[in-house]
Amino acid sequence: MGILVKNLSKFYGQQQALQEISFEVKSGEVIGFLGPNGAGKSTMMKILTGYLQPSTGSAFVEGINVQANPIDVQALTGYLPEHNPLYEDMYIREYLLFHARIHKCSKQRIQEVIELTGLQPEIGKKIQALSKGYRQRVGIATALLHDPKVLILDEPTTGLDPNQLVEIRNLIKSISADKTIFLSTHIMQEVEAMCSRVLIMNKGELIIDKPLADLQHEKNQIIQVVFDQSISEDSFAHLPHLISTEQIDARSYRLKFDTETDMGGEIYDLSRANNCKILSLSKEQESLEDYFRKITSH
After folding, report:
1. pLDDT number for residue 213
2. pLDDT higher than 70, residue 28
3. Structural domain boundaries, residue 241
4. The predicted structure's pLDDT at residue 298
5. Where's the ABC transporter domain (predicted)?
6. How far apart are CA 176 and CA 274, in angstroms?
7. By Cβ atoms counted within 10 A, which residue in 115, 182, 240, 252 is the most buried?
8. The dihedral of CA 154, 296, 176, 133: what is its sign?
9. Which phi and psi angles does 45 have, rounded to 5°?
10. Which of 146, 180, 212 is a domain's end point?
11. pLDDT digits (tens, 9 = 90+) for 224-278
12. Taking the mean position of all CA atoms in its chain, how far away is CA 183?
């Protein structure tokens, strides 16, 4: 069943952190959970894992009510919080053994997650001697020890260098085949690389819940064009679907349109009407990062 949230709200005193949130995540989905700082993402994840109680509404993981049965839910859930809590004076295997005893996992399972998360090269080290990337691997290995059906990851790639980021991304993709993954991140490339659906929070409200493919269609079209002479800004005003015009230099312009339809033909007609030639024209799609900023800035 995955995750089900119904009319969930959370108050901290007079401050409302979550406002009547409802959504459903089916088993096997990889969800990108986005929002600016203070949007309520971490609060939602803590409620889903049983660390916080909602003020109103309810949440279910694999059909189990989180508020009524938090221990049962935690047995089905793997959680990597934003600030990965590790005992730095422990060796990797020692730390995993400590958690395996809590979950009553076998030593064989410890070896399986070590291999799955690529910890073998550093297995003889204490956690305090590990790089940020390997510390995140230890956190993910801990979350995977009891073979959970749902994996909740809060900013798993924050602070990683480009190589470490790719390694953790590949690791998450490799374990997504048979698990529901709820992934909070500020890195838009991670969402595009790993997620099938996107939830976007802003100021405690859920403002977007759509498949990633649908968001790709909603993003604006951007065309950068260079003419052989300058054109007055008024000449662009009659272009259909035009959102904005940015003059880069005397003859170069960056045009933004709110349509998927190729606007190259319209720009060609514009050049003829102004008795000039197009020296270059390049088309791009608005990035997910631009789309995110646009919808969360209002």
Report:
1. 82
2. yes
3. 219-296
4. 62
5. 3-228
6. 54
7. 182
8. negative
9. -70, -35
10. 212
11. 999 999 888 888 988 999 988 989 998 999 998 988 788 999 999 999 999 999 9
12. 5
Global pTM reads 0.79
Distance between CA 118 and CA 2 in Å, rounded? 27
**One domain for residues 119 and 256:** no
Same domain assignment for residues 253 and 206: no
DSSP string, 92-129: HHHHHHHHHHHHT--HHHHHHHHHHTT-GGGTTSBGGG
State the CATH number of the domain containing residue 37: 3.40.50.300
Mean pLDDT of 66-72: 94
What does DSSP assign to residue 91? B
Q: Are residues 69 and 159 both part of a single domain? A: yes
For residue 220, count other CB atoms closer than 10 A to its CB: 19
Packing angle, helices 107-116 and 132-144, rounded to 10: 140
Three-state secondary structure call for residue 54: coil
